[in-house]
Amino acid sequence: MADAVVDYDEALATYDPVMGLEVHVELGTATKMFCGCATGFGAEPNTQVCPVCLGLPGALPVVNATAVESAIRIGLALNCQIAQWCRFARKNYFYPDMPKNFQTSQYDEPIAFEGYLDVELADGSTFRVDIERAHMEEDTGKSLHVGGSTGRIQGAEYSLVDYNRAGIPLIEIVTKPLVGAGERAPEVARAYVAALRDLLKALDVSDVKMEQGSMRCDANVSLMRKDADAFGTRTETKNVNSLRSVERAIRYEISRQAALLNDGHNITQETRHWHEDTGITTSGRPKSDADDYRYFPEPDLVPVAPARERVEELRTTLPEPPAQRRKRLQSDWGYSDLEMRDVINAGALELIEQTVAEGATPAAARKWWTGELARRANVEGRSVDDFGVTPAYIAELDGMVRGGRLNDSMARQVLEGVIDGEGSPTAVADARGLELVQDTGALEAAVDAVIAANGPIADKVREGKLNAAGALIGQVMKEMKGQADAAKARELILAKLTS
Amino acid sequence: MTDYTRSTAAEIAAAIASGETTSVAVTQAHLDRIASVDSAVHAFLEVDAEGALAAARAVDDAFAAGQSLGPLAGVPIAVKDVVVTKGLTTTAGSKILQGWVPPYDATLVTRLRAAGMPILGKTNMDEFAMGSSTEHSAYGPTHNPWDLERIPGGSGGGSSAAVAAFEAPLAIGTDTGGSIRQPAAVTGTVGTKPTYGGVSRYGLIALASSLDQAGPCTRSVLDAALLHAVIGGHDVMDSTSIDAPVPPVVEAATRADVSGMKIGVIKEISGEGFQPGIKKLFDQSVQLLVDRGAEVVEVSCPSFEKGLAAYYLILPSEASSNLAKFDAMRYGLRVGPEGVDSPSAEQVMAATRDAGFGDEVKRRIILGTYALSAGYYDAYYGQAQKVRTLIARDFERAFEQADVLVTPTAPTTAFKLGEKLDDPMAMYLNDVATIPANLAGVPGMSLPNGLADEDGLPSGFQILAPAAKDERLYEVGAALEAALLAQWGGPILDKAPALAGKAGM
Fold first, then answer.
1. Which of A307, B191, B255, B316 is in Cβ range 3.0-4.6 Å of B367 for a Cys bridge?
2. Distance to chain A for B244, nearest Cα, Å
3. Nearest CB to B372: which of A99, A294, A302?
4. Which reaction does it catalyse (chain B) (predicted)?
5. pLDDT tens per residue, range B246-265
6. In terms of Cα–Cα distance, which of B49, B53, B47 is closest to B81?
7. How many structural domains is chain B composed of?
C-alpha cells in the first residue's frame, strides 16, 4: 500500500534533502574476482562455476589483477587517492545466494578514496559530488523463487539459485552525504549516475547496463528541517536500475518522508524497495547502524599494494572526461546547444564522431543519425544498432549527396536499401538505378516539354511570380522519374522564362 | 620376505625402483596391516583399497615401461581427512560433512598423485581440526598404538597413529597450533610443519586460514624431507603460498651436520612445568647436539607466554567465519527441525548445525563470533593480532642469536582417553610449545626423543627455524635422529607393543 505523501514543492519548502548514493558496478573482466570462471551474461545457470566461486570446503580465492587495475583506473578518473597498501576483508552474514556466507569485500582499507565528480545539470550549472570511496568486492549469486505470485520468497514453493554471477568483480562507489542540492536533489542524483555511467563507459571497464543489473544504485535519502543542524534518519532504496527511476525514487522518498515528519512521526531506518510500475517505494528490512558484519582482514588473500609507477602508468590510460569531450566536440562540429542535447539524448555521440571521421560533414552526420535513422528506429521499436548501418556507410551516403549523384529523397531510398540488407550505399544506388541525371540535354528537353504543357503556370513565372516555378520543377521531376537535379531544373526554367 | 610395513618410505621407494618389490605388493601389505590392526587403532575414517591399488598398478606399469619416476614413486600414503580428495569421502571428522565426496583434489593431493603415491585412505582427526587428542572426532577417537587406552595426540592423531602403527609409511597432517608436531611427539613419530605458505592450502578445509599449514607425518627425518619436497612449492591457486622453490630439505636431511651451529634453548619453554621425564630427555638431547659440535645459547621469548591466549582468540575468530558455509543447503548433512511441518531455511540451518557440529566446534564458533563482534573486535581480535606481532619479533630477535630454537614438543606424554575431555583449558595447554610457530609462520619439527622414565611413553623434541629456512629443521633433526638411533640401537617404534592380534578390541 502506498504511504501518504505531500506535494514535492511543499516538502522542499520545509526540508532540505540529504542524499548518499552507492553505485555498484560489475566490471567487464573476462574472469571472476577470485577465480578463473567466465563472466558472460545469460549463460545457462550454474555453468560458470568452480570450487572457488561455489565456496566449496577447501577452496581459496586469488585476486584478479585486471579487476584491481580497473578499480585503480576508476579511482583515478574519480579524482581519488589510490591506496598504497590495502586489504580485503570478510563481511560475515548469511545470505541464500552467497556461497561462503561471507562476502569478500573491502572495509576500512578501500583501494580508492577521497575523490569527486563534477556533474553538469540541465541549466548548464555544475554540482560537485564528493566521493567517499570506491572499493572492490564480489557479487552474489541470484535466486529465483518459483511458485509464488510475486516472485518473492514469501509464498514460493521452492527457490533456485544460479551461482554464475557469484564472484563477478564489483566496484562500489560511495558518495559523501550530498547536501545543498535542495529541490534539485533528484536531478542531481540522476545526473550523477548518468555522468558516472558515461565515465565508466569511456573507461571501458563495464558495460554499465542498468537494465541488466551490471550497474545499480542504492539511494539513501533523509530530510533535515531547514533550521536543523543534524541529518535526519535515512532510508536506503535498494537496486534502483534506471536513470529515470533514480530521479523518481528520490523524489518519492522526499515526499513520503516529509508527510511522515509533518505528521509528527519518525522515519524508520530501513531498506526500501522501488516499484517501477507504481512509482512508489515500500518497506524492506529494518536496518540499523549496528548491523554486525564482524569484518576482519581476509586471511586467505595477501594485501594489495599497487606499485606507484603502475598507478601513474594507469593514469596515462584515462580517457578524456566525457563532459570535456562533449564540449570539445560541440565546438568542433558547430552544433547549437539544442542540437547537441538531441545528439546526446539519442545516444549518437560516438556514431557521429566516427561518421565525421569517415568523411561526412558534422551536419549530415547529425541529420542522418538523429533524424532518419532515429525516427525509423522509434517507429519500428528497434535500436539503431540493429540496422546494420555503419558510420562508414553514412559517410559514403553523404559523399554521394555532396558529389551530386543523389538528391535527398534518393538518398533516403538508398538508406532504405542499406537497412534492408542490400549492401553498401553505392551498391544499393547501382542496383536500384538511382542516380541524378547529369545529361543537360535530357533535362532541357524535359523542361521544354513541361513549359509547353503548362502555359498558364509558365506565364505566371514570366510575370515575375517566381514561386510558381516550384510547380514546374515538380513536373520536371515527375517527367524524369525523380532522377533530376532539382537545383539545375530550377536554374533552367528560370533562364528560359525570365531572361 | 621383507615386511615392507616396517620399512621407511626411502627404503620402500628404493626397493620398488630396483624391482625388488612392486608398489602393488607394498600397498597390499599396508592394506592388510590396516585390516588387521585398525579396528583397534581407528586411525582411518575411510580406506580406499581399490583406488590405492589402481594407483599402485599404474606406477608398476610405468616402471615396467622404463619410465623414470619421482623419489617416492609407488610409496603409499594416508591423508588427513581435512584435505579434500576427489571422489573420496572427506568429512574433516565432522558429522556435518558426513558422506561428502568432493569434486576436486587439494593441490597437495594432485602432487601426491602426480608423484605416483597411492592414497590408502583418509585419517581420523578432531572435528575440523579442533582439539589436541582426536577425541573430538564425530566418528570416535583414535587410540595411541603405544597404549590403546591413551590419546594419539590431536588434531591429526589419525595420521600419526597410522604411521606409528605401521599402517602407512607416510601420512599428511595439518598443523594449525601443533596438530602435526604434538601427535608426532606422543606417538614416537616425526612431524613437520613447514613455513606458512610452504605447502599450498588449496583444498585444505580451513580451520584458521592464517595459521593452517599442511606437512609430513613420517617415521624418519629423511622421509619427512622427501615428502616435503613432493608436496611443497608455489601454487597459483593459493595467494598466500610462497613464490619460491622448496628449500633444500632433502640435502639437509642427508648431510645431518650440526657442527658450528647455534642451538637456542628458549628459556620460557625449556621444560619448566613439563613432565619431569620429558624435561630430562630434552636436556639429554641438547647435550647430544653439543657432543656433535653444536653450541648452545639460551634465548628469551617473553611474549610466548601470551601466545596461547592470542591463539585462542585468532583461531576461533577465523574458524567462526570459515565454518559459516556449512549451512545444510548445498552439501553434507541436512536435518529438519523436529515437529515443524514446513520449516524455514533458518530452521533447517539451525537444526543441521545443532546436529552436525560437536561441542568443541560450537564452543569455538561462539567464542570467535563474540571476539569479532562490533565493540569487542579491538579488545579481543585486535589485541591478539598485536600479540602475534610481538611473538614474531621475539622469534626475529632469537634467530639473531641462534640458527634454530629447541623445546620439548608437548608438556606431557599421551594422557588417557577421556581424562581431559571436560577441561578444555587443560587440553589447550598441550599446545603451549607448538603454537608460537603458527602465530609467527615459522617452520617446526617434532622428532622422537625417547621414552619418559615415569610412564615409558614417547616424548618429542621440537626444532624451530626462521621462516623459509626449513632445511635447518632437517639438518638438525637428522643429526639428532642419528645420535638417538645409535643410543637406542634402532627405531624407537620397535619398542612399541605389537598390535597384531589385538584387533577387535
1. B316
2. 16
3. A294
4. L-glutamyl-tRNA(Gln) + L-glutamine + ATP + H2O = L-glutaminyl-tRNA(Gln) + L-glutamate + ADP + phosphate + H(+)
5. 999 999 999 999 999 999 99
6. B47
7. 1
